[in-house]
Write the structure tokens for this entry.
Amino acid sequence: MSQTVDRALTILAALGEGPSSLEQAANRIGVHKSTALRLLRTLQEHGFVTRQSDHRYRLGGRLFSLAQQALETIDIRQVAAPYLASLNERYGHTVQLSVLEDGKVLHLDKAQSRYPDRPGSRLGPDGRFGHRPPAAATAIGRVLLADLPPEQLTAFLAAQRAGGQETGPTEELRAELAAVRSRGWSADEAAGPGTVSLIAAPIAGTEGRAIAACSLSAPAHEASAAELSRLLPELLCTVEAISLAYGGTPTPRWCENRCGAKHVERASRT
């Protein structure tokens, strides 16, 4: 590695721990202050470093912009795919990855169940690719809505009311979403023949909020709601593993090597 590049990266890493004076930066890379100053000025010109009013240096906005761009290029489908396949392989039920888009649920990927192809063995119309069910009407959607920032949730509910699409009184929905957020999952229970039970949990992104949701579902004739609910720890382990692989910050409560992930302590969501 180029010595100049190595010094620049060392300085950036040091500034990641907090602002530093010119002398501190020079000491960190073992050079004279004039050399460190030239390097810091170059980084400042490109927006990677900012000089504060107290003459100390801190990380610049360009670095955060690049970091955000890098994160946006990470395809959550690619990250989640092996975990979806693993959960599907262990239990045979349908595993799905979904996101929130314009107040509706958009399905991104699915590991299909291994049941015999018979009526009622697949997800209903709400689980088809291309079909976008209203978020408030599904367990997957409620998981995603529950993790919205308060102002975004308020805007969503206002839009629902304006469009006449609300699924129930606003305060009741707010209370339900608060409960979903508190427990970390939601469920749709099968109500009879031909219906599907489903449990869903959020996948946390870098800011600790849900960027997607993972669901595990089964038709009533293959698994009762009670049987599916017993797999909830497996689903919660899976979403935590995906969150960690993506670079997110899930709350490490459930992962107990069920999915093979090496769980490390991370900051809890707030």
